[in-house]
Amino acid sequence: MLTVDPPNHTRLRRMVSKPFIPRMIEDLRSRIQQLADELLVAVQEQGKMEIIADFA
Fold first, then answer.
1. Backbone angle region of 50, left / alpha / beta, with phi > 0 → left and psi within -120 to 50 → alpha
2. Is residue 41 domain-resident?
3. Which domain holds residue 27?
4. DSSP class of residue 52?
5. Predicted TM-score (pTM) above 0.90
6. Per UniProt, what is one GO molecular function of this protein (predicted)?
7. In angstroms, rounded to a whole number, what is the distance separating the alpha carbons of residues 54 and 56?
8. Does residue 36 lie within any of the structural domains?
């Protein structure tokens, strides 16, 4: 999507933007926090972190 020009970019953005409105993000906040905490606990136990492999 980053390399697509209008009008295709506009069409694609409309298709994927709804889940990213503030209300939807707020609804997911607790689940995202839980997943992030679990990942960080695992990394802490390992004593190191490869950000892409371990977290992304």
1. beta
2. yes
3. 21-55
4. I
5. no
6. monooxygenase activity
7. 6
8. yes
CA 4 to chain CA centroid, Å, is 21
Inside any domain, residue 8? no
Helix (H, G, I), strand (E, B) or coil at 21: coil
Total tally of structural domains belonging to the chain: 1
User: Is residue 14 situated within a structural domain?
Assistant: no
**Where are the alpha helices (H) located in 1-56, listed in sequence order?**
8-17, 22-46
Residues 6+ apart with CB under 8 A from 24: 18
Instruction: Report pLDDT digits (tens) over 2-54.
Output: 899 999 999 999 999 888 888 888 999 999 999 999 998 988 998 888 888 87
| Tens-place pLDDT, residues 7-19 | 999 999 999 988 8
Q: Which of 8, 7, 27, 31 is nearest to 18 (CA)?
A: 27
